[in-house]
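Form 7-S
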Amino acid sequence: MTSNQSLARPRWSRLARVRTRLWGLLVYGGVLAWCLVQLPTAAVFVVPAVAVGAVLHVVRGRPILGATVFLVILVVAPSLFWPSMLTDVMNSLGSRL
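Output:
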């Protein structure tokens, strides 16, 4: 055994890699299906997040990065619109009085 072999990251078995990617397909597919059925207006934010997360998780084999980017897109993208939503709410409240 050479010295650089001990520093190499452990290799996953082929079955474990396939299983991880299939779970990614199921999770991201389920999130997308649930969104389209329950919250179709949120699809504007969910579809890009699912696409990026699925590519990173399933195609590239980076499940942690895929899940992280997925969650960041779902939190950051809608938060960019909070000021405009609050302005509309305050405007609606002001017009009722």
